[in-house]
Amino acid sequence: MFFDRTSSIVVIALFACAVAGYFIPDWIMNQLMFGFARALAVLGLLVLWRTGLISFGHAFYFGLGAYTVALLDINLGVSDVFLRLVGAVLVSGVIGWIVGFVLRNYRDIFFAMLSLALSMVLYGIIVKTEALGSTDGFSISAPTFFGFAPDGKYPLFVFICVVCAICAVAVQMYLNSTLGWMTTAIRDNEVRVEYLGLSVANAVHVKYVLSAVLAGAAGCLMAMALGQVDPDSMVNWTASGELVFITILSGPGSVIAPFIGSVVFELLRTYAFEWAPHAWQLIVGGTLLTIILFLPGGVWSVIEKVVGKKS
Amino acid sequence: MLTKKLIRGVGLAAVSAIAISGGAAQAQDATKQDTIKIAVAAFLSGGAAGPFGVPGRNGAELVIDAINAGKLPAPYAAKGFGGATAEGIFFDESGGATKQVAEYRNLVQKRGVNVVIGYVGSGNCIALSPVADELKTLTIFSTCGTPRIFEESPRSYVFRSMSHATADNIAAAHYVADKFPNLKGYTGINQNYSWGQDSWRDFDLTLQTRNSSAKASEKLQFPKIFAGQYGTEISALSLDKSELVHSSFWGGDLEAFVIQGGARGLFKKKTAVLTVGGAASYRLGKRMPDNIILGDRGPYGILVRDRKTALNTWFINAFKDRYGTYPSGPAYHYAQSILATKVAYDKAAASAGMAPTQEQVVAALKGATFESFSTTVDMALGNGHQAITEAAYGITRYNNEAGEPALTDVKFFPAKCVMPPDGVTSVDWIKGGMKGATCS
Q: Using a CB-CB distance cutoff of 8 angstroms, which residues of chain B are in contact with residue A137?
């Protein structure tokens, strides 16, 4: 029962993308790669959003994941994708677990602003420390797979598709579990959930760690896809804002939504950049406004309408 | 039910993939032999757009158009880049290194760009160097300063058409040592990131070798980059005993510092050395105080306004006609990169006898020496990939008659005086007493 329809669609769609990656032009594969990598962090935000929690500082974990990869590479020469991913997940998971003890007691704007403050502390530390690359950041060496160093980006793309599929299925399972269903209940009425004999604080904590791990993994994949980490595009509040933007663009409807939303965002930005180099921010911002006004359910609500009506 | 939906979904995906790749095929068509695409990266949004991005972009645009029309003075009067007409693609450099890497890939893989020039941010240049080599695309950095690019690892497709930041600060120290031989103390205000830290280090080390009796202040100011407000730092600098203030501020930070410092009388009490001050001089006009030691990252902008060579006169007049202002430093930096592109294409086309390949163009630019608008560019370092040029400093004195900013006491330092020899890193060279420097 846990492996439901949504899970099979995700697995089949990502498998199709992984196969298609071999035939499509490089730049589209790049866009998909960036989109899918970032989608994991958005998936993490979606998990929080289901409880009505919004984090304006999720780039904290995104950056932790990315910088873990960079520091492993520079200091220890770790280039294996699996070791890098495990490292990033461990670092973001452990720090998320510790921070969670504080953050699980806060809701609404307090939760959002506290997470923002945290991310800006990390940003400040990185910018001021030369050993962490300061504002310039680091270049990362090309990833290897069990000592095998392939040419081109295709193997990494397949790896990203596989990680995304596993994460999406895991999140879907979590959302369908008792703990997962509780999330909506917590949003609606925390007191009642407590009276049902369940710990709200624990449920929020689990959720928070899960979303931290997802964002850390996203940062790790993004760093490898780009071959570069820097604080301005990975830890700064603008990066957190971008993640929230994509979450709204995608809509909270399904675990598939972040993947579609994220790729749409990547394409939107690329074409806005190409057509209006002086005003691309205006186009991106205008799109967000349009989505909020006319499509509060995000891109997913359109897909639901198109596919859902005919069945 | 499920399979039906899946088929529909896969069909939809296929249709959109075909639509997108159709666009890609179109992009690839454009790389015909009689046109080349030059992408120009410049800050078009944010605080650096006004002082850096827009003049840089305009300098590149002006020279691309002139080369296409064959309007440049000799020896560049031949039309086109190796005969090919260039199409300029101007795009925004802001948003951080990560975003620039993604955009760079788009430019090369999606839009079929042949040459990428520009970039002011050192972080962007460091991030893009390995990508340029991976995608095998000629990339000429115009302004970014960090020596790390070619000192850390050899590059194949990456060039820089001006000196790196070490030259600015060595020249500044020489100028100060020559002008103020009795200097007792000096301090600095620099942004707390690589550029600011490196600039101060180079200036400090060089000045120590020239005048060891001068002491650096213990209260150096390293405010956050893009802070914008320098009230406390200016107070601290005013109270400091040092007579001289060094600053590598650039862009909006520089303008804010000059305006706020001017209002508090800082520049009446202290002599300031602004290594990138030239970029702000035309924009600030009368608000730029007199008696400031000014550089513009080399012999560019206001420092070379009185050089009457045919190329420089053409550039200043054409720029003023088209954009209504004098060309500032960044305009020269970008124009110089475009000229480097032309030199490389012309040379490669002449020896290949037809449209040259990327590899032929890269080989032609390697180690080349050419006359630019205001100075001679010699691709001497980094195995022929890093240029060296003269450096220049002057002292501000507003020209009330003409109603425009001007300089006095402009001094030029030969390239071999301010840049290390090939194979020696900047820091090692300065620390070793700048062996082999020829300053006269």
A: 97-98, 123, 126-127
